Amino acid sequence: MRGVTTTARTAPPRPDSEHLADYLAADAVIDHHHTAIREAVSRLRSDTDVESARAAYTFVRDEIPHSRDIGTWSGAHRASDVLREGNAICHGKAHLLAALLRAQGIPVGLCYQRLGSGTEGEFFLHGFVAVHLEGRWARLDPRGNRPGVDAQFSLEEERLAYSADPGLGEIDYPVVHAAVPPRLLVGLASARPGVAGFAHVPGEL
Fold it and tell me: Could you give the number of structural domains in the chain?
């Protein structure tokens, strides 16, 4: 597994749709119409959209462990399944955060990085989110902190879990996706509970 750092990004995220409504939609993965998601929202909602987003982000980052960190692999990627199982890899955690915020009327999209796996020539696809608050997009990474990872809620300076190094063939994709890209969705759907690792996740978009 690669080393981890945080990074500040200067180029703004680029949405793949000009319609904010696309970033509020419920679908089979970001199923924010689910009763359990709505119940969680009622506990996390705050007085302002920014504070509500901060509360949901902190909950997913800190209370829903990354599967690798605890050695328990739920295989969950649908938001409501991640909430029920209580752990997921980065993609599942991003989908849960997106659902918790879309349920409150806060537009959220999905973002990705292609990162080195630690083996030369091999990559994994890391997922996180971008939220539309105060008139602009800001990327947030709810992966979960551990030694070497210090992702934070910030609408000003990005505090992501990982930094992509182009010199190593890594890619920080600028696009904010309204839905999970089809190739990634196929991989995530093939995950099985109890099976460790990221072999089911494609190495790039």
Answer: 1
